[in-house]
Amino acid sequence: MEVGAESFAWRLPRLRRRILRAAFVALDMEFTGLHSTSLQNNEPSLFDSPAERYEKARRSVQHFTLVQLGLAIFSKGNSNKYVVHSYNFFLFPSTLGIRDVEFTLSASSIQFLSHYGFDYNKFLKDGIPYMNEVQEKILRQHLLAGTWEVCSTSNADRDVLKKAIQEVTSWIAAAKEEDSMILQDLNGYQMLDVQLVLRQALENVWTEPLGDKKVIVKKVSPEHRQLLENSSYDHCKKKLILLSARGFTNLFQILVKAKKPLVGHNMLMDLMHLHDKFYRPLPESYEEFKRNIHNLFPVIIDTKTVTKYVQKKYLFPRISSLLEAYTVLCSSNLNPKGPLCPVIALASGCSRYAEKKFPHEAGYDAFLCGSVLLMSAHLLLCRSTDDAVEADPSFSQYLTVLAEQVNKVNFIRGGVASINFSGEDAPCRHPPALVVHVRGWPGLTERQIYHEFKARCRFDVRRLSKNQFILLSNKYKQLVLRDYRHHPHLQVSVYRHWRHSPSVNCLLQISGIVALWSLLAFVLGGARSC
Fold first, then answer.
1. Which residue spans adopt a coiled-coil conformation according to this UniProt entry (predicted)?
2. pLDDT value at position 117?
3. CATH homologous superfamily of domain 148-238?
């Protein structure tokens, strides 16, 4: 089910009811970009600690924005049946306020989403506004002071605003008090924007919404207008303006208050955008970010972490994507068949997901996340006991069998397997490293080293000293050591900390100097005594 600005407000009460009744909620997001290439040393690396990776990702999150958020609400029925309501929300930053919002587009990300059929017109023209607490505080202050304005890049096209003002100004010259006219074909938040602009520009008009796509404009006296402005029925009251400008943030706050388990796949970037766009700007402190997310969502489950655990525990095929995990779990004989297996039924408005695959559509991927979670949890529950599993296991039983994976978010290519949002991260454990000694090749850079070894294995490179580089890979091939055994300029060996670390070498040199001076002092002192 697709939801834009035009239909969001009246869908919100039903969404709230469904979330409160849900067993859990799954989400997925699509962005205007992932990793900013305009920032120096911002590429993810195997050398990264969780805190270092967070800082890199934080800078990227500040550059990019969301284009679509998928939400799949899983409600438990009888006989281990789960009914799924899946939604695609098109999002666009709120333009109601003083400061305009800027964001970056990554060409590769835009091309990627276009390949999978993403509709950028819906993102730009019918995107639901949103704001975080800091932006809301600024808007609230300007509303109270009466100094707010609609940004020039509002959701309401400039042509729509211009046409509305022209129609009203040409009409009002000949109109009498209490005469009225109707503006038609206004979509979503255009209805609010047009009313705000007209009221600011003309002191002798009053506006009210008329149905879904119309606004009625009345000519009134200044005294009458003042009475209307103080009326509790004014649809442009500051409280309602704020509610409209917050848009999707209202749904985010419903999710936070509901405290339902939140499910995603490789969801670190999703959590960072949730924090930055709907809660508060991302803090500099990695630990503060973890605490904030845990307070907002006490139970987080990353299906990437779950499927990695299932792969290790059972003979499970290697998978590289969420869709592959779903396909394998649906078809594999690992997953118990029969009445005990959870039945996942899509609600009537979402039935197209049962008929066709829609990879990288946020609502579809959110549906896959929740389905993979249920099937993986059921598999683990059945394999964890020799006794028969009861006919209708509760979702809390699934959470119990997943206890080791709860609040562990997958860490892609780094020193730890996952980030622990409810405690301390595991110590960093990098894979075995190689060290490259350079001879007779002056000015060699990390980039040149990377391209030299890229054909043999994917390495991350970091300079160790003037003539040495460290290579890290999830798996390095022995042939790299073999092939470079007789290379004229590059000598490759396994990295040994005691032998290759500059700090250890420096310490050894200082110790050697101290020992030499001590020996000289002893010898010279002995000579004088003789």
1. none
2. 86
3. R3H-like domain (3.30.1370.50)
